[in-house]
Specification:
The chain is α/β, with parallel strands linked by helices. Helices cover about 40% and strands about 20% of the residues. It contains 9 helices and 8 strands. Helix 2 links the parallel strand 1 and strand 2. The protein is globular. The two termini are about 25 Å apart. The chain binds pyridoxal-5'-phosphate. The site of pyridoxal-5'-phosphate has 14 residues, from strand 8 and helix 9.
Length: about 220
């Protein structure tokens, strides 16, 4: 086993039952992704459209590509034909664009709505009120017929303060549960709560995450 494969195996042994692992491979070369692929990893997360499309073109077709970064509306058309899940949908305009392109290309695109629970001002995402306003639109299903909202995604504040991180993940979980219990649409299937990265994925799983996005602990640090 290579060092990368050992790292991956360690992370996998730490996953709670039912938690999916997105191997965040941004900036890393295809050879390293293939090391993970060879030991069974099939979900990879990228944050740049061009890089993800190039990797998609040159790698095995049973890989599930997840767009985890901030997505610009003018890039949507390049990925809807093959992307498995878009994590960072942070505005109705972006959701509209994803729907529009999906209609055009005859596909249905899986999305997570990104929610803002962190203290930092800079993080993208809906706050609770914006999220509920969007999801409580009565014609949500008719407005976005070629989108399937599969859940929520969030990022905690970048801090060493465990309590702060816990508080934010708890908040995300309670919003997730609230949506699940209060909202129903034909294109809404609230099953995924994507939260947790290398530094905080164990905390995230303990607070209800069922999809973690781990990069540097698998592939090594990025420049
Ligand atoms: C880069 C990135 C990750 C992975 O971060 P690591 O700390 O390397 O595990 C997870 N989620 C998002 C949205 C990212 O951009």
């Amino acid at each position: 086993m290579t060092e990368l494969q050992q790292n991956l195996s360690t992370i996998k042994s730490n996953l709670l039952t039912g938690v999916e692992l997105v191997a965040v491979s941004k900036t890393k070369p295809v050879e390293l992704l293939m090391e993970a692929y060879q030991v069974g990893q099939r979900i990879f997360g990228e944050n740049k459209v061009q890089e993800m499309s190039q990797k998609h073109a040159s790698m095995p077709k049973d890989i599930k590509w997840h767009m985890i970064g901030h997505l610009q509306r003018n890039k949507v058309k390049e990925i809807v034909s093959y992307v498995d899940l878009i994590h960072g949908v942070d505005s109705p305009r972006l959701l509209r664009e994803i729907n529009k392109e999906s209609v055009k290309q005859g596909v249905t695109t899986n999305c997570l709505l990104q929610i803002h629970v962190a203290e930092e001002e800079t993080k993208f995402g809906f706050d609770v009120d914006e999220l509920m306003q969007l999801l409580k639109t009565t014609d949500f299903g008719e407005t976005y017929p070629n989108v399937r909202v599969q859940g929520l995604m969030t990022m905690a504040t970048f801090t060493d303060d465990q309590k702060q991180i816990e508080k934010e993940f708890e908040m995300a979980k309670s919003i997730f549960d609230q949506v699940r219990s209060e909202v129903s649409h034909s294109n809404l299937e609230m099953k995924t709560l994507s939260m947790g990265m290398s530094g905080d994925y164990q905390i995230a799983m303990n607070h209800g995450s069922n999809m973690v996005r781990v990069g540097s602990s698998i592939f090594g640090s990025r420049n």
